[in-house]
Amino acid sequence: MRVGICQVDGEWPNLALAKLAAHHRAHGDRVEHFMPLADYDRVYASKVFADTPDDLYLPPDTIRGGTGYSLTSVLPYEVEATRPDFSLWPRWDKSMGFTTRGCVRRCPFCVVPRKEGGIRVVAQFGDVWDGRSSEVILLDNNVTAAPLGHFRSVLADAKRNDVTLDFSQGFDARLWTDEHMAAVVECWPFRRRVHFAFDNVRDETAVRRVVSMWKASGLHPDRLVFYVLIGFDSTPEQDMYRVELLRSLGVNPFVMKFKRTDPYQTRFARWVNNKVAFKAMSWPEWCGTFKTTVPS
Predict the structure, then answer these.
(1) Which of 120, 4, 110, 127 is nearest to 57 (CA)?
(2) CB under 8 Å to 7, separation ≥6 — which residues?
(3) pLDDT in the model for residue 206
(4) What is the pTM assigned to this prediction?
(5) Fewer beta carbons under 10 A from the terminal one: N or C of the chain?
């Protein structure tokens, strides 16, 4: 069987497609990136964002999945349990996967509760790590809500194997405890910066507490990055308040746009996420550079 794999969006390898590739190769099938003029027995396509344009050359019988297509599509159990094959992405040299699924929150802007349900442990460190790579990307949506023992175990296993971790979705500041902090200090399995979320101004107390804990533990606050969601239920004034608060605390804001094509959200994200610009000029100066009206 000849199988075509089409990743419609996303910069990192698509985990579901990598598992499908591994599953088919294990059965002797030929697996390759989808090419419009090729003849395939089966084609899989996946995308993350619903507003990403589809590939116009995909055949009508393409099997589509991912949150950009559906919140109910899931991989068959035997595929989900397969270790991913990233050989279609030859520059990728990391392991990637989930140790937990779901979330305890019901944030109205997030599809995770509808797609995955409540928090549960689905794998251990060794189930995700391929035994060779020096870094593991964990896609857990709220590992902070998992049992503390699981969190400690993942960090300890990473340290034991001299592997760095990147919890790419970030930690929940509202659930962060002294025990989480102690596990981080003891193991420190991070090479990159550590991410938290600051989705709403109501979370300010939790954000301040996390930064204080970080400083009290002797860790440099510059290692912290807080995702700042804009464009959902916040005003431009609230957006500015959050990023300037983070600046004053000595940590890094990273703006996440709710509407990816909105002009204000795009311009604000480009200013904040460009660290040179964010440090060198104010928001009015940045807007003036491009002759853009500052939202009021």
Answers:
(1) 4
(2) 13, 14, 17, 45, 46, 47
(3) 98
(4) 0.91
(5) C
Cα(112)–Cα(130) distance, rounded to whole angstroms?
26
Separation of first and last alpha carbons in the chain: 58
Instruction: State how far the Cα of 153 lies from the Cα of 183, in Å rounded to an integer.
Output: 9
| Residue 111: CA count within 13 A, CB half-sphere | 13
What's the confidence (pLDDT) of residue 296?
53
The domain locations on the chain are 1-89
How far is Cα 31 from Cα 57, in angstroms, rounded to an integer? 18
What is the C-alpha separation between 1 and 26, in angstroms, rounded?
12
Closest-CA residue to 21 (of 35, 36, 4, 37): 4
Q: What does the alpha-carbon distance between residue 80 and residue 77 come to, in Å, rounded to a whole number?
A: 5
Where helices occur in the chain by DSSP H, the ranges are 15-26, 77-80, 112-116, 125-128, 148-160, 178-187, 204-216, 236-249, 263-273, 275-280, 283-289
Tokens of 60: 């009508």
